[in-house]
Design goal:
Elements: E1 3-6, E2 9-12, E3 17-23, E4 31-38, E5 45-50, E6 57-59, E7 67-72, E8 77-82, E9 91-99, H1 102-106, E10 116-117, E11 121-126
């Protein structure tokens, strides 16, 4: 598996979780990275994305101010710190990588631009 997510689990509303995405065998710094999520019966949706250098970040309106995406290229990891979690954040969270290119900067939330995906980690927020 090219990308491996970890850190999911069960948490009460208002709590926090930190998801990590590790790029085994790949140089993460060559890719922009995003987090997407899919709840049961719903379409996959964009959560957050970060440029290859970490200098640009993007968030879905639903998580802005609560989630923070970051990356450590030396450790080949990207993290998603999730605070003030809500039951509606419950979903399988996927890490994905997009190759360097101008298209990503104009459409970072477009999942079709990401060609490497992890298998996902479950996040469940209880009310």
């Amino acid at each position: 598996v090219p990308l491996v997510e970890s850190g999911g689990g069960l948490v009460q509303a208002g709590g926090s979780l930190r998801l990590s995405c590790a790029a085994s065998g790949r140089t993460f710094s060559s890719y922009a990275t995003g987090w997407f999520r899919q709840a049961p019966g719903k379409e996959r949706e964009f959560v957050a994305a970060i440029s290859w250098s970490g200098g640009s970040t993007y968030y879905a309106d639903s998580v802005k101010g609560r989630f923070t995406i970051s990356r450590d290229n030396a450790k080949n990891t990207v993290s998603l710190q999730m605070n003030s979690l809500k039951p509606e954040d419950t979903a399988v969270y996927y890490c994905a990588a997009a190759p360097l290119g101008g298209s990503w900067y104009s459409r970072p939330s477009t999942d079709a631009l990401y060609d490497i995906w992890g298998q996902g980690t479950q996040v469940t927020v209880s009310s």
